[in-house]
Amino acid sequence: MKKHGIILFGHGARDPRWKEPFERLAAKLRAARGDQPVALAFLELMSPDLPTAVASQVAEGCDSVTVVPVFFGQGGHVRKDLPEIVEKCQAAHPGTVISCATAVGEDDAVLEAVAEYCLREMGR
Amino acid sequence: MKKHGIILFGHGARDPRWKEPFERLAAKLRAARGDQPVALAFLELMSPDLPTAVASQVAEGCDSVTVVPVFFGQGGHVRKDLPEIVEKCQAAHPGTVISCATAVGEDDAVLEAVAEYCLREMGR
């Protein structure tokens, strides 16, 4: 069976509580994806970093890995830092196809859910 | 009629394209809220900052203003920086009730939408 890993890529922060939503998101994806690998990775301040997470999924036998930037906007971290890291990961693991999704905050259904949350918080 | 403003509070970034999802989110909320004020504000690198956005909504006649942190996790920016800024805004505008929501990434429906996006990107 082909293995297709997903890595949720976040910025990272000093406060360990910052990553709670990322862990909840990973748990939702694990529940939905059966035994397909799901991992977190961070740009800075938290571990693992992306090369470590990619190497781990390659070691698990992933034929392909999709990196999803869990960012709202696409600034320098997503447009510049991330492609550079992914390029190095791809060079290090030529037998695995490593691809990047668009940042989650660009998705309209995600923005709809955020808007609904705002309206609930305001009592509409 | 009472005016209840909402301010979408983001981190800010150097790349102006970073804020596109925030502008789309604000447009969704304006469509849903009729003539109730909706504004963006940023912690750094982009303008306006939060005190400027709050002062503007107070000048528009808002009795209350809700600040919604458009962040995934609640780290130092949301737990420490934001309350300090809001406290100063509240002191500057005692006639308006200024409150803060929990970061949008803590909301389960938002995380569900992000998970659905990830699954779509993976071909499930």
From TrEMBL, chains A, B:
It comes from Caballeronia hypogeia. InterPro entries: CbiX-like, Sirohydro_Cobaltochel/CbiX. Keywords: Lyase, Metal-binding. Gene3D superfamilies: 3.40.50.1400. Pfam families: CbiX. It comes from the Bacteria. This is Cobalamin (Vitamin B12) biosynthesis CbiX protein. GO terms for molecular function: lyase activity; metal ion binding.
